[in-house]
Amino acid sequence: MFRRCMLSLFLISSSQGATHQLSPPIGTPTVALNAAALPTSFANVTNAQDPVTVLQIHQTLSLYPFLIDGKQFDHLDLVFHENVWANYSGLGAFQPLSTLEVVLRNALAPVNTQHALATQLIQIHEGGTTARSATYYTATHFGTGPFYGQGLWAWGTYEDNWVKNLTTGQWRIIERTSTFAVSTDLFILLQGVRGTERPYLRDRFADHYVDRVL
Fold it and tell me: Given phi > 0 = left and psi -120 to 50 = alpha, else beta, which region is 127?
């Protein structure tokens, strides 16, 4: 179990040398909503919205998994505002984009990844220059080098605030909060093998981070 946790510990500890910024650029830090509050907070998505704008935001966010999995961290400006404030739970909160790029590059250095976006809500605010979205995601991490043979699976939500560039018409994320649960070994999680040994799930959806044994 200790060896299987090593990959998870590396991904978290590799960000500790980065500069943390705990206040976002446009107001109070984004607080992740719990599962019960999230759908009602997006109740207005059932109203008519500009489909072109919704698709533009959807397509911009769809670039993120390909950039991360391809380790193209220098091109994250295709998705994020240069002054983005991002809270990646266990990794910490970071600002601006240049800092976030370094954090993600270092944290994901020992793994190959595949990120997949799933269910999504997009809400365009009145005026058409700001928006918010909530997106379920899964992320699979395959260890390389000394972590070869180890894996880490994450299931979570990206809650993003967007701003429109009035000159280019493009949309970028200005604030992000990522919450997730993680397992260090999917096979053990599903099969319950190895006696009393069970994988850890780190609960990112509670007010406090809790390691719990299944």
Answer: left
